[in-house]
Amino acid sequence: MSVTQPQKPAAKRLNHQRSTSAARPARSQSSRSAAARSAAPSIATSDTPSPTLSLNKQNASGSRLNLTPLQTPASVETITSQTIAERGQHSVTDAVTQNAVGFTASPAPGNGGLSFSTRGFTGSNSVMTLYDGTRLYVGAGTVTFPFDTWSADRIEIMRGPASVLYGEGAIGGIINVIPKKPVTTPYNDAEMSLDTNTTRRIAVDSGGPINPNVSYRVNAVGNMSNGWVDRDETSNVALSAAVRVQAAENLAFTLSNDYGNRSPSRYFGTPLINGAIDDALRFKNYNVLDSAIRYQDNWSQFKTEWDAADGVKVQNTLYYLTSRRHWRDVENYSWNPTTQLINRTSYIEIFHDQAQVGNRMDATFRGHLLGFANEFVAGFDVNRVDFTHTNNSPYGGASSVSPYAGDMGSFAVTTTRTTPGYNAIVNQYALFAEDRLSLTDQLSVVSGIRFDRPDVDRTDYRTPTNNFDISLSGTSWRTGVVYTPVSNLAFYGQYATAVDPVTNLISLSATPKSFQLATGKQSEIGIKQSFWGGRGEWTLAGYQIVKNNLLVPDPNNPAGLALQVGQQSSRGIEASIGLALDDGWRVDANLAVLQARYDNFSQVVGGKLVSYAGNVPLNVPQQVSNVWVTWDFAPDWSVYGGVQIVGQTFSDNANTQLRPAYTVVNSGLRWKPDEQTAVALRIYNLFDTVYATSAPSGQWLLGMPRTAEVSINVKF
Q1: Beta strand residue intervals within 370-473, DSSP E
Q2: Which of 136, 158, 70, 186 shows the shortest CA–CA distance to 528?
Q3: Under a CB-based contact definition with an 8 Å cutoff, are residues 96 and 114 in contact?
Q4: Which residues pair with 537 in a beta bridge?
Q5: Do 221 and 202 meet the contact criterion of CB atoms below 8 Å apart?
Q6: Long-range contacts for 18-26 (Cβ within 8 Å, ≥24 apart)?
Q7: Spatial contact of 615 and 602, defined as CB atoms under 8 Å apart
Q8: Which of 100-104, 290-294, 507-511 has the lowest mean pLDDT?
Q9: Residue 25's CB: how many other CB atoms inside 10 A?
Q10: Residue 402 phi, psi dihedral angles, 5° rounding
Q11: β-strands 127-131, 173-179: how paired?
């Protein structure tokens, strides 16, 4: 369990220290040795309460210069493993949506459960998920790893365009799950839990030194559950292992491997009856008896960290990622008022076979430029993705079943066999640079630029005339100013651009192959402050994002090739506050209010061109907030409550299918009988709210009902 570290020096002092350090002579042998010994992290043991915004801790996701949020002209935040563990958030989705500012999710079996929305943009292409700073390219709208939080040291968030850091996509923001690293002091942790859905969970975490120059970290977690709807047994296993070798006083290597094997929920939703959920159907599962879903992901990384000279650091990450996925389901359900039955369609079988190999290298220089303290990083990123999509398209088959009982049948054999559909090979290279120039101790300028060049080679196994090979390119940049008039109070402004594919690159089809990357731009201003000796923190930000070059039908030829002239925009205000009060009270709260709109967007419906200009995009709530209150009411006892509030959401571009707003309350009680043991009772969805997390046409994927969990955690 990670624990908040002591308060770092004020931003003014940090700037001064960096200004003077560059002028110092090269470090002595003893100072270099000390730095090398401290390179691998150790486990902190303090339980000092603190707010969760972490404004004075380095955040590697908002900048490649490892700035703190107070030094970064962007909206960045960190969710620590301590916060995640205390609130019982076992999934990445729960940890992000219940803690981060302005994030919601539309998890579904078809998208891997990792589809998020923020700042008016939604989906895994516009809100990027990374693992330890490395992105897995989105295949057919699906990302399946990482899913469990046990191996996470923290989750770093950045809201707003991130193309300048991570490449095309991410116009809404990024979620970077940072795994636990090898440690230099022995550490062992184990946890078991059981909930009222018969979810059995066991997890272990072990780390420490092997010898003075080698350390390790191993994590394992697994669970099995009967689920909360009929016939929905699930299971998953996640393993993580890393070894760090301090080869020399200024050179370290880290080899890691992360593996996930997951059989997730096969519940695709509850059909609406007369436009609403019938309570009698809440726990029904209309998938076939032999439905199956399985995801297998593996991430191998080899990292090199070299302090080449005083003020010069070189880092290199070589990685190989694979993902194997399989679906066999009946996915669409609708109520038939004439027959009083549930009609089922879309008998779908799909396989994903995805492999990604790449290398990322950068060099950081800290010194002076024209007499001003300066930090500069430059590097390159190259990768190759090989993706094969096997399916039984056009996904025929149909059946009808009783809404209340009866035999759900087996997967139907359609007229189309499951065969390879297409293969896509994407080769990409990118060049990037970022700079921070400290004009004074109070004023700094942070700028960055990135050039991406992806090449897509698609082979269509069924229609060879749809084969193509195209090259795309995009340049994104940002610049921002941070002004710190007094210690720990920062005002900032930023302008950023982004590039976004019209669809996932490795799923690009023959129709949009001739289109270029969509473009976006954002203007943002904000204030951040850490006060009261670090026991209080708050942020306030306002932004506007405009995304251009969306695909819309040609009004003069709706059935022909679309035009790349559409536009979508959003503007909003985001605020957060964290307070560690006296008498054991802690409060964390955030609020996001936005206005998201299609400015120029239309589709062909029933052979006619229909404009959706002025409508709200799909799966975008325009008010989102979280409030958490924790009280240590007695020695070794604490109680907490959390409220998640999500505004109403539309499930179609016409804005005729409305999902109501909802409020979910979670609570818990924690007891520490001794320093090494913690026992917790948690209740999720305390008031048993019925709500939808996503909604395909005519059916809602409902959130988990009231569930109680008991867990015990032991450190040894």
Answers
A1: 372-391, 398-401, 419-438, 443-460, 468-471
A2: 70
A3: no
A4: 530, 578
A5: yes
A6: 18/366, 18/373, 18/375, 18/438, 19/368, 19/373, 19/438, 19/441, 21/311, 21/366, 22/311, 22/366, 22/367, 22/368, 22/373, 23/368, 24/310, 25/310, 26/309, 26/310
A7: no
A8: 507-511
A9: 6
A10: -70, 140
A11: parallel
Q: What DSSP string runs through 297-350?
A: EEEEEEEEEEEEETTEEEEEEEEEEEEEEEEEEEEEEEEETTTTEEEEEEEEEE
- Predicted local distance difference test score (pLDDT) of residue 68: 95
Q: What is the DSSP letter of 687?
A: T
- Tokens encoding 55: 């404004």
Burial class (CB in 10 A: 0-12, 13-18, 19+), 290: exposed
The string of DSSP letters for 213-272 reads TEEEEEEEEEEEE--SSTT--EEEEEEEEEEEEEEETTEEEEEEEEEEEEE------EE-
**How far is 241 from 142, CA to CA, in rounded Å?**
25
Q: Which amino acid is at 250?
A: N
Residue 584 — φ and ψ, nearest 5°? 80, 15
Residue 11 phi/psi, 5-degree rounding, is -60, -40
Q: ω into residue 6 within 30 of 0, thus cis?
A: no
Q: Which has the closest alpha carbon to 68: 695, 463, 430, 487?
A: 487
Please work out, in degrees rounded to the nearest 5, the angle formed at the alpha carbon of residue 601 by the alpha carbons of 606 and 168: 120
Cis omega (within 30 of 0) for bond into 9: no
What are phi and psi for residue 145, nearest 5 degrees? Answer: -150, 145
| Inter-CA distances, 339 with 275, 336, 399, 697, Å | 17, 6, 12, 19
Taking only the tens place, the pLDDT of each residue in 141-193 is: 899 999 999 999 999 999 999 999 998 888 999 999 999 999 999 999 999 99
What pLDDT sits at residue 283?
96
Separation in Å, CA 469 to CA 36, 141, 235, 429, 562: 47, 21, 40, 16, 20
Spatial contact of 68 and 591, defined as CB atoms under 8 Å apart: no
> How far, in whole angstroms, is CA 288 from its chain's centroid?
31
With a CB cutoff of 8 Å and minimum separation 6, the contacts of 405 are: none
Q: Measured between alpha carbons, how far is 129 from 176 in angstroms, rounded to an integer?
A: 6
> In the predicted model, is pLDDT for residue 554 greater than 80?
no
Asked whether the predicted pLDDT for residue 213 surpasses 70, the reply is yes
CB 225 within 8 A of CB 231: no
Place of tokens 């982004």: 498
Give the pLDDT band (50/70/90) at residue 455. Answer: very high
Burial of 80 (0-12, 13-18, 19+ CB in 10 A): buried
